[in-house]
Amino acid sequence: LTHHALNGKHFIVTAGGTKEAIDPVRYITNYSSGKMGYSLAQALVENGATVTLISTVDDLKLPFGVKYIAVSSAEEMRNAVELAFDQSDGLIMAAAVADYRPENVAQQKIKKQTHDPMTMTLIQNPDIVAMMGAKKAKQIVVAFAAETQDLLKNAKAKLLKKNADMLIANDVTAVDAGFGVDTNRVTILQKDGDSISLPVMSKIEVARQIVEHMIINMTKE
Ligand code: C5P
C-alpha cells in the first residue's frame, strides 16, 4: 500500500446520533459520540482522500482538510448524503441513525397531561445506507452494525439487506467497544463473505484498519 492510496478520491462519512424532534425543546437520540466517524475521516485524509463529514456532533476535533456539514435529524442527514453521493467514491455510514422519529413535531412545547401514560406515535426514518446501496455505481458503501446479540448472524444479514460492500460489526455490550468509549473491537465483513475480527484498539487504529481494507477492496474491483 502506498501512503497516498486514496489521492483524488472523495468520501462521505457520517457521524453521531441523529436527533429526532418532538417539540421545540425536546428530541429523541442515542448514545453515539461521533468518535468513530471522526476517526474514519482522519484515516481517509491520512491516505490522501478528500472527505465530507456529515455529522450531528461538532464538539470533536475536525481533522485538517475535512469539509464539515452539520445536520440534526435523519431526514437532514439523508438529504445531505444524497446531495453528495453521486460525486463521491464512497460512503461510510458510521452515524447512529434513529430508526424512528415522532410522526408529528409539535409547534409548541407539549404540556404535561393530567392523566398518564401519554403516548407518541413514531414512524420509520429512511434507511440512508440502504438507499445509497441500492443506487450505488462506482461507490464503495460501508455500513456499521451495533448489535447486542447474535452479532455475526445479524451483521451478515444487514450487509446483504443494505447492499453494502463492507460492514463493520461491533458488540455494543462489550465494555471496551462501542458508544462513548475511545476503544472499539470490531469485525469487518466483506460482501464476498470474508470476515476479519480485530482485537480491541483505539478508534483511530480501528479506522485505519477499516480504510486499509477499503483500499484493498477498491483495488480488487
Ligand atoms: O439497521 P441498522 O440501524 O442496525 O443498520 C446500521 C447501519 O445502517 C449503520 O451504518 C447506519 O448508519 C445505517 N442506517 C441508515 N439509516 C437508518 C438506519 C441505519 O443509514 N435509518
TrEMBL record:
Coiled coil: none annotated. CTP binds at D99, K109, P126, D127, I128, V129, F144, K158, K162. The lineage of its organism: Bacteria, Bacillati, Bacillota, Bacilli, Lactobacillales. This is Coenzyme A biosynthesis bifunctional protein CoaBC. It comes from Weissella diestrammenae. Keywords: Decarboxylase, Flavoprotein, FMN, Ligase, Lyase, Magnesium, Membrane, Metal-binding, Multifunctional enzyme, Transmembrane, Transmembrane helix. The keyword Transmembrane applies. GO terms for cellular component: phosphopantothenoylcysteine decarboxylase complex. GO terms for molecular function: FMN binding; metal ion binding; phosphopantothenate--cysteine ligase activity; phosphopantothenoylcysteine decarboxylase activity. Binds 1 FMN per subunit. Residues 6-214 form the DNA/pantothenate metabolism flavoprotein C-terminal domain. It catalyses: N-[(R)-4-phosphopantothenoyl]-L-cysteine + H(+) = (R)-4'-phosphopantetheine + CO2; (R)-4'-phosphopantothenate + L-cysteine + CTP = N-[(R)-4-phosphopantothenoyl]-L-cysteine + CMP + diphosphate + H(+).
